[in-house]
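Q: Got a minute? One more chain.
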Amino acid sequence: MLQLRLLLKRVRRDDRGSIAIMFAASIIVIMLTVGLAIDGARAYNVSSRISAALDAAALAAAKMLDDESFNDAEITDRAHRFFAAQLQTIPITGVTLGSPAVAVDRAGGHVDISVDVGVATTLGQLAGISEFRFPRAARVTYKQRFIELAMVLDITGSMCQPCSKIEGLKAAAREAVANLINPSVPHGYTRIALLPYSASVNAGAYAAAVSGGESTDGCVVERQGAHTDDDHEATGSHELGVSNPANNNKYSCPASTIMPLSADRATLESKIDSLTTNGWTAGQIGLAWGWYAISERWKDFWPTESRPRDADSNVVKVVLMMTDGEFNTSYLPGGGFNSTDVNQHNSSPDQAKRLCTNMKSENVVVYSVAFQAPPAAEALLRSCATSSSHYFPASSNAELFAAFRTISERLAALRLAK
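A: Always. Here it is, folded:
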């Protein structure tokens, strides 16, 4: 009996020891788990901050791709310096970094930057884990698109009835120029052409070349034949027409001349300020010239600085068509010189509709603005626009200004492909 009591005491002592061992082991596991969680949270925080620094450095470097005067070494150096500056905001104790690797891809328009990161552990060392190591990387694509905008502006007699209308148009057009061409935009990335029209288009210095020397006053009208409603170059039998004597009661030559693509804000604004009004509404002729101004098929016709770029995904070609009235002046056979019927073949609105359809099929973005225009003109411009969101009705100078501002802001945002 005595021996049994001694045996039971020994078992009880052994049981208490086992529990103590199990408890101690549990405490160690819990401490390691908590320690690794704390170390992991710190590593995650460092990782997030390193990633943000890499993003900022890659963006700063990628912006230099806009300027071809910078070489790859200079872009890489900026990425390194910008990353080093960003590290000043990161608690660096216990953090080791490898040398950042920078890759510049001009064709793709992006900069890659990567770095190996090590974060020392604290309690994690109890489990034999001295640090967490992981790579971090960032890529920023900053490929700015080229914008080529042709502003086709109504300068007919009705735009001076009252003359506050033409003044409102000038203010709206200047706003668009200011939004699109400013010190924040690399020179040449946005160019604007001005195509004022009324009963004809004054091609100015280009009139002789496009009319085979037939224009005597600088103005031209539509061309006849197969290329009335496309952007075929004005050569040989495809030259632009001159006034038809049968339509002299409608024909007039506006004083305001066209201006091909330009990135010169001051010159564009001066040209806008000089616009004057007179004549009827041959909107289809203005539309055609809007297309000619941005068409790569015409690039050899324009001066070097005004030559349109070849169409690709990096070039946005836009025609902004504005009128305050119905298109009512055609010089083509069967068009009816004063017909406003869109269903009459070769009428002014019929030509305009076909031009818009063909422009859009060539990926030209068409915006249209109807300024205090009658319902028929609104319907034509609505159908002419790329989509319903590309059409703007304006019943006042304030709404006209807002329309041009919205269009230019959209294009400014579209210019950046990030």
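A: The two ends are 89 Å apart (CA to CA).
Q: Perfect, thanks.
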